[in-house]
Amino acid sequence: MAKGRIVKALSGFYYVENEDGIFQCRGRGNFRNRKITPLVGDWVTFEAENRTDGYVLAIDERKNELVRPPIANIDQAILVFSVKEPDFSTHLLDKFLVHIEANEIETIICLTKKDLGTQEDVTEKVKVYEMAGYQVLYTSMEDEESVQTLTPVLSGKVSVFAGQSGVGKSTLLNVLKPELKLETNAISKSLGRGKHTTRHVELIKLTQENGYVADTPGFSSLDFREIEADTLSHQYPEMAERINDCKFRGCTHINEPGCAVKRAVEEGDIAQFRYDSYKQFLEEIQSIKRRY
């Protein structure tokens, strides 16, 4: 028996890596009966007679896991958004941030296509995220040096790349590790977004940095079933730090008097667009709970 980490899952096979290489394994027979699914990123106990004929016997406890994409034990999420083409979307970024925060995963915001110019309103909005405590990096596909600013950030960690479609996630990874030759697609002009190019979840080893990057098919469904209405504001750092100052415990920050969050919005300490996305997500969560 040996220990290793699942670096790829494809067609019912799990590819487990340790210091001796990669072993193709199947899941243990009783996993299905116990409704256990091994995930990419899992640390496992396995046995293998050779490189192509092994079995995953047990899965270590996970520190976190995502449902879509199905992946475990993530150290950080790199949320990749473009300055232009497609336009920077704070609403979509907030949606990603809420889901990542709910899974207690560190987040770094990576803005691509800075060569296309940064409009003043984008710069102002980005400052809001920096004030909330998020690290923001600007990159350009035309400037390899700017992409290399990601190198120390990825060092020694398991990172998941996610974000808008068509912003250059695969292109970024190709710059960081040219031998990957990941498929990239140009933006569809009529749709204003890229086509999905990634088909399965896989951990890609970045040798110089001793880190792994998960290239995933993206967060195919960012619905709010996993998030409760009363914890949504906890996923906004600038709201979370004011919750205890609200007059009522369990304040939803909508109609209650003496709400510290609403006061901060009125005084300009919380950005209106962040509060607007909070209200919209809260409505979505409440409507889901009513349906179910």
Automatic annotation (TrEMBL):
Binds 1 zinc ion per subunit. Residues 63-222 form the CP-type G domain. This is Small ribosomal subunit biogenesis GTPase RsgA. It is found in: Cytoplasm. The keyword Transferase does not apply. GO terms for molecular function: GTP binding; GTPase activity; metal ion binding; rRNA binding. Zn(2+) binds at C246, C251, H253, C259. It holds the Pfam family RsgA_N. Monomer. Associates with 30S ribosomal subunit, binds 16S rRNA. Its EC number is 3.6.1.-. GTP binds at T112, K113, K114, D115, G163, Q164, S165, G166, V167, G168, K169, S170, T171. The keyword GTP-binding applies. CDD domains: S1_YloQ_GTPase (cd04466), YjeQ_EngC (cd01854). Residues 72-220 form the EngC GTPase domain. Its cofactor is Zn(2+). One of several proteins that assist in the late maturation steps of the functional core of the 30S ribosomal subunit. Helps release RbfA from mature subunits. May play a role in the assembly of ribosomal proteins into the subunit. Circularly permuted GTPase that catalyzes slow GTP hydrolysis, GTPase activity is stimulated by the 30S ribosomal subunit. GO terms for biological process: ribosomal small subunit biogenesis.
